[in-house]
Amino acid sequence: QQQVKQSPQSLIVQKGGISIINCAYENTAFDYFPWYQQFPGKGPALLIAIRPDVSEKKEGRFTISFNKSAKQFSLHIMDSQPGDSATYFCAATYTGGGNKLTFGTGTQLKVEL
Amino acid sequence: ETGVTQSPTHLIKTRGQQVTLRCSSQSGHNTVSWYQQALGQGPQFIFQYYREEENGRGNFPPRFSGLQFPNYSSELNVNALELDDSALYLCASSLPGISGNTIYFGEGSWLTVV
After folding, report:
1. Among residues 62-81 of chain A, which lie with CB inside 8 Å of chain B?
2. pLDDT band at residue A13, thresholds of 50, 70 and 90?
3. What are the tens digits of pLDDT across the range A39-67?
4. Does residue A1 sit in helix, strand or coil?
5. pLDDT at residue B97 above 90?
């Protein structure tokens, strides 16, 4: 049973545009939602994370929006740059889960000039 | 750099063989997790070790086993390799306890089973 659904599978955005990636979860016990960025041949790197007690978190050009009632959260990349081209994964975990992450299926982002 | 190092980076094995992958975690991180990432998929949790004991396991068969050593380094062992075991194997380290402790991933070990 896939507990975190991610869309779209791939995304092409023009330089300077906004990239939006969406995730939905099923397990209401999840209480920590990180986003990871992965470049080819590299391991995932933590980008930004949010807890369900806030509806939005912003770090630089990256913003997470969180809707607890809908069990959805999204990543917004403002002023997208070619260097942002990578695969993005949403993930979720819960207190007592031992830091076990449940990942989405990933979104391959390409930012074109 | 995350401070998590894995070896080897790439290896090719034959179906039925056994493989051992190694991970050195970030200094002070006594919790180590292993993930399998098939091509084009998100990482899947295999298991986690805390203080040298397995502390949580995903939906993987017993032929996937591990060890954690007193210095918190870890090994992932896979017996009776199958073609579907071909994947990127990721090690992640963190502090234990509440969720949200930053989890750092290594670069991974690419395993190809032929």
Report:
1. none
2. very high
3. 998 899 999 999 989 999 999 999 999 99
4. coil
5. no
Which residues, at least 6 apart from A89, have a Cβ–Cβ distance to it below 8 Å?
A6, A35, A36, A38, A44, A103, A104, A106, A107, B42, B43
CA–CA dist B6, A35 (Å, integer): 22
**A44 closest CB neighbour out of B50, B55, B105:** B105
Q: Is A58 on the interface with B (CB under 8 A)?
A: no
DSSP 3-state assignment of A76?
strand
A113: distance to nearest CA of chain B, Å?
25
Q: Which two tokens stand for residue B83?
A: 């073609």
Residue A98, token pair as written in the block: 């031992």
Average pLDDT over residues A101-108: 95
- Cα separation, A109 vs A2, in Å, equals 22
Sheet strands (E) in chain A: 4-7, 10-14, 19-25, 33-38, 45-50, 56-59, 62-67, 72-77, 86-92, 102-103, 107-112
Residue recorded with tokens 């869309």: A7
Token readout for B110 is 């690419």
